[in-house]
Amino acid sequence: MTGLDDPILPTSIAWGLLAAFSVLWVVLGWWLGRRNKTAEDHMLAGRNVGLALATATAMATWVTANTTMTAPQLALQLGVWGMLGYSLGALGLILFAPLARRIRELMPEGFTSGDFIRLRYGKFTWRVFLVVSLIYAFGWLVSMAMAGGVLINALAGIDYRVGMTVILTVCVLYTLLGGLRAVIGTDFIQTVIIIAGAAFIAWLTIDKVGFEAIHFNLMEERPELLSLLFPAAIMFLFNNLLFGVGEIFHSNVWWSRAFAFGRNVGFRAYLFGGLLWLPIPIVAGFIALATPALGINVPAADMVGPLVAAEVLGLTGAIVVFIVVFAALASSLDSLLAATSDLVTRDIYRGHIRPQASEQHQFHATKVIVVLLGLLTWLAASYRGEIPIVGSLAELLYFTGAFVASAIWPIVAGLYWKKANPQGAAWSMILGSGIGLTSYFLIGFYVAALVGAAVSLAVMVLTTWLMPRPFDWGRLARSDAEVPA
Amino acid sequence: MRLIRPLLPFLLWLPLAVSAQPAFDAPPERSTDGGFTLAWEADGPVVLEQATGPDHGDARTLYEGGDTSTVISGLPDGEYRFRLRAADADAWADEATVVVEHHSLARAFGFFAVGAVVFLVLIGAILRGRPRD
Hints:
A: 0% strand, B: Immunoglobulin-like
């Protein structure tokens, strides 16, 4: 039986690949971002991104470390339902398509998701939203930095902290140089790499191991993974769907793209992006089910994807996995760094600390904040396995599920319900997050988002019904309009 | 005392010279999803076995090598026994027992139904599209 004590990728090749792709992304970032002169250029790429680039960035950003590495982890832990349930995350992108169109119509001059909450619900709800949004963004950033370190450690045996530091540094560097324009440009190339690489790995896995051997060994050693009545997996299905919806609906990663895409592009871009994304977790997750047939030891659940791929496919497979996951990681880390720094600059720095900050001042602040976010992420990811929540990728990710799923209804009601009121929105996030987190600890990671979304819906419907407060949609078009109390 | 003094350095090193036995590192007692991670501390390669009875009559080797943890998943309800020894030793060094008791199907489908309702309301809210002015 093989394990982590005999890595497949020689250290010299791993360092060579890491260096080559690091240089490629940083140079591309510099080249694509060289014309950025203002904060608006840097943050929203001139608000005129076309359909091809828009679809690619939606799909590539949603193919994250979580897709390529957590999907196999969930297949290993929750079986066939875990794998299929993860692919339901595509519905987040698909359902955001009509929202993107509405956002662009209502807020032609908008910058961030925080702008929307501030103008729609006022300052208290805005602050609650910022807490929810930043907890999620930080959890996602740390989970991806962790994934980078785990990947390099699993494939090449390079120390986790060293690999994590290198990947994080590269992403900070090119996001710093190019802003959203660089992020979207590199996403396009990374999409091509991800689709081609994932298809190649799946084809080789089926060809080399075969369905029969996979099925036989699972039945012998891990029969629940094939059971359609696996209780935890049944609980997980809608949890994952609502988690994905919550992630996309509230996060500035997707709102900044809705603002950046050209008119009439957002709807189609998110729809096509979701459809392209749908099969990726099934392909990535499937290979984890080959673990018993291959006799591979999996020391940590989040390592299973790269370990199995490298074992089945040998050196070539290890190289392909390395490139695909590095591309997936980079395409999401950069997007999240860029979108989170925009949110912090616009909603915390300009919104709370220096309201009179000039365009140029915000431009510089965005860059300083990217570096600070990178440093904080590095610090938290350094303690993988030592802090309870920062255990495995899935545990960390689904911890944030309670927060994001509780933000679904304030966003949807805010965009479509004229009478949704600020108190209802704030309390649906507070109670949804609180009760969702309680269920995370009392029941399991696979119900936190579901409970958060259900509580948030109940609070939002009840408060809108009991305390209706009509809203003038025209206020959203004026990004600097006075906010309601 | 004069006799012991020259031996002191050797006596101090004695505990380190005896290699530590492999031992499980805080193994879980229960699991509600049929999965958990077993970790252990060992100086070298180990052999890990899994069985369902106290006599380890149906034991099978789960892992043999230099890693210090393994992920177990997909187990049905039951009591599972694990034992660990150094690869070059005959005697078993440590044992752990984990009880797997899955959530009830009633609870699972309860959560499933809540999720389905939230999802359908969401679809309805978005499909209605335009705000109700």
